[in-house]
Structure formats: structure tokens, C-alpha cells
Predict the 3D structure of the following.
Amino acid sequence: MTRLRLGTRGSRLAMTQSMTVATALRSVGVEVELVTIRTFGDVHRGPLSAMPQQGVFVSALRAALLDGTVDLAVHSMKDLPSAPAEGIELAAAPAREDPRDALVSSDGRGLDDLDPGARVGTGSPRRQARLRVLRPDLEVRDLRGNVDSRLAAVDDGRLDAVVLAVAGLRRLGHADRIAERLDPMRMLPAPAQGTLAVECRADDVATCAVLAPLDDVATRLPMLAERAVLAGVGASCASAIGALARLDGPEVTLTADASGAGGEHVSFTGSAVLPPGGDTAEARAVATGLGRSTAEAVLAAGAEDFLVR
């Protein structure tokens, strides 16, 4: 029996996501041991926009991969830096959860029905920027912490509402707390939101082969397009960038936007036809090219002048 050590962050959401991968591997006869790794993002409690580097939630896990402490690592795809990591292979992107953002409010009201001056918390520069455009009368507060601690801020009255990912709420069994699933055309999700990344060492051919069946082509190709937007605009943790790609037969359609602290906002939608054959090198190149061209269009539409990077 194959035995693999799976590296994961220690939060309840990270452990739940990692257990999903571990369960899938165990179902095909792989013995999996979870190894908890503490990352810089778990220790640093300041706002995301002030983080000193990209990959604050993944660097320690990748280091553990490279030094042989673990054989694979599971991340939220949206936490990965846009540039590839030397010596590390993205072996699988399992089937995506709902990519949308969700509003959780103290009384079940949606975004448009919150009282003027309502206190809404989120640590995401993207969500903060969009909230200030959609509801400039709200008091938007920076909020860090795990899902449960952010929900507690609503329950104990410190906040009137919080914005979280639908995927995380569903994975933790909190879907019943969702007051509104926000329309992506009003608040585009983070690129690859709702998608997991399963990484291993690039030279570990055996582990790559074991992980390959977990990959989902309907997730992989849109994810590549969305993440190419991040790379194309040179995004950092402080960048307010949204992107969502959808497959419709052979066509992939991608919408991306950028928001500024002063209420600036631009968006662009592009599409491309994928070659036949499924998840091929050519199909991946087309999806990535669509992301890059969309990023160029967003910058050309004015984001170059206001986007924080």
C-alpha cells in the first residue's frame, strides 16, 4: 500500500479541505497521514493588504514539500502566488465548489437591505472595494481570522454582517448561515475561488501519478484562465482583482475586473474556443492566453492607473 504524508494548515477549513483529498486517496488504497504546518499567514494578524510577500499561506507548506517533510500539500487555490514554484507540480485541481461570495448577516438580510451605516467585515481588498461601490453608505471594516471567528463577530454583535466564500461555508457545514449568494456580476470572486490545489514535488513521479486522477478538467482550464489574469496584471495580496471563467462546450468565457480604493472599477469579458481533446497542453495554453489577454484589456481600460500591486 502507498503511504503519503499530506501537509496542511491547521485551521478547521484547511483540515476539512485536506481531509476531502485524503478521503479520495484512501478510497483507492493510499494510506494518508496529515501533517500540520504553520504558515506566516497564520501568525501575521495584520490586514492582507499589508502582507510583506505573496504566498504567505503556502510558503511553509511548499518548503516542507521540498525538504521531504511531506509528500503532497493541499491549499486553497486562491492562496497560491500566480508565478509557478520551482520544483513543485500542481498535480491536481479537484472539482470546484461554488465560487461565489456570500453575505452572512445578523438578521438574514441581503446586501441591498442592510441599514445605512451597517458594519460589514471582510479582510479581502477586493471585497472591501466592491462593497464601497455597491453600498457606499456601509461601514466596511477590515476583518481577519478563520471562518468561525468571523461568524462569531456577527453573532456577538461586533458586526452586522460579514462577506465570506460560499465554498468555505459549505465545506464547514455553515451553508444555512448564508443570507445572500452575491451575484458574480456585482462582485466577481477571487480568481480560482472555491478550487483546491494539490501539489507535490515535480520530480516525485510516483506521487504525481497517484494524484492525477483527482484532477478535474472542468475545473483546471477555467482556473488557468483566471490565474493568468493575476499574473497578467502583476497582482499582490493588496490587489482588488476578480475573475470568473465558465466552460460552455468548447468555449471558455472569462470576465475579470479591477477595483481601486477611490471607487474606480473596470471590467472586461473575453472568450476563446478550446481545441478538441480535453485537458491537453494546447487547451491549457489557450486558457492561459485568454487570461493574459483579458488582463491586458483590464489594464488598458484604466486599471493601470489605480490598481494597487
Summary: The first strand starts at residue 3 and ends at 8. Residues 216-309 form a domain with the Double Stranded RNA Binding Domain fold (CATH 3.30.160.40). The radius of gyration is 19 Å. The chain has nine helices and 13 strands.
